[in-house]
Amino acid sequence: MLVGLALAVAAVYPSARAYLAERQAPEVDIARAVALVSAAPDGSSALPVLVATGYVVARRSSDVGVKVGGRLATLKFEEGTRVRKGAVMAEIEHADLDAQLEASRRAVVEAEAALAQATAARDEDVRNLGRQRDLMKDGITTTANLTAAESTAAVSAARVKSAEAAIQSARARVKVAEEALENTNVRAPFDGVVIKKRAEVGETVSPFGVVGQVAREGGAIATIVDLTELEVQTEVSENSVAKLASGMPAEVKLQAYQDQAYRGSVRQIFPSADRAKAIVEVRVTILNADAHVKPEMTASVTFQEPAAKSVPDGARHVPGTVLVPKRAVADHAGQPTVWVVTGGTASRHGVTLGAERLDQVEVKSGLVPGDAVILNAPPALADGARVRVKGS
To answer: What is the C-alpha R_g of the chain?
Structure first.
């Protein structure tokens, strides 16, 4: 019986020993090396190089204000109202200007009547001068009478010119009155949507604002934006701005709609930096904005490198180049290395690194697509040691 027991123990001992060794092996997290492939022509699957946050703004936005002060008589908009360029959005009371315009128009009529009278008198004086000249030839009249007729005709001609000038002046005053009346209309500067109403009917407004009414700075009565050109206003660290270029593709996500991604493109990298914050402002145009995208929404922008993209194993890849998490790379004797798990055994691999992409880094040599690399290698891990993969 003792012999049988000894034989049984000898039979299970190797398995038990292997089981205990496996259970005592350190537990590690792994990630798969992902192949790097040529990008699609449209760059739709480009690799991320930088992430920044910002706010949605309209490229064209205007605080629409008044040209002259007065009391608002009518408002023809509310928040959300679509307006066309040149459409009247509001009117200021203008009864006094109506009266001035009417007086100016009547002055034109009076000046025209005065011109008609002056013209008739001039014509009569010219005919009289002609008669005096004929009489002078016949010796019937005197030189004094001829001179008097000439003077009268000259005065009449001058009166006609004066009347003509008076008409021009009266018509100019009409234009001034019409312009003053037009200035009481507040017109939309471009096609857009009202996003903020800053005044109500009956309030007194001024081009320079009204004391005590801080909500209406500079006489603005409304804010309108062009929703056909929306972009994200974001800030990038000085240390990272060199990674960006005008026209670079980007992916935009709204905080309110995380599941929806929008295509973007870097429109402008501002030519100056903020010295205090050490940042540079960047504007990213949203190329396919829909009704969900609204000004002042919080958005995140993932700037993308159009040269490459990651795909599952087996796809056409850039030879020898893969992507792994930065956490998988360690330093050994001054050289970058990674730990690769094969059959429950860890082995150290020297690698050649390429460009960094957010939390990933390119590995140009030392790995192949699909390799399982350790993310949290224990400090005392030895080459060829047993490891346990979490979740396996």
So the answer is: 43
- Residue 340 has, within 13 A of its CA and on its CB side, a CA count of 15
Q: Does domain 26-41+310-389 have CATH number 2.40.420.20?
A: yes
pLDDT at 315: 39
- What SS3 state is found at 122? helix
The whole-angstrom separation of Cα 28 and Cα 339 is 11
CATH architecture of 47-59+229-305: Beta Barrel (2.40)
Tell the CATH topology of 62-92+185-225.
OB fold (Dihydrolipoamide Acetyltransferase, E2P) (2.40.50)
Which residues, at least 6 apart from 340, have a Cβ–Cβ distance to it below 8 Å?
Answer: 346, 347, 348, 349, 367, 371, 372, 373, 374
- Tell which residue, 313, 342, 304, 346, has the closest CA to residue 25: 346
pLDDT of residue 142: 87
Q: What angle do CA 260, 295, 264 make, to 5 degrees?
A: 45
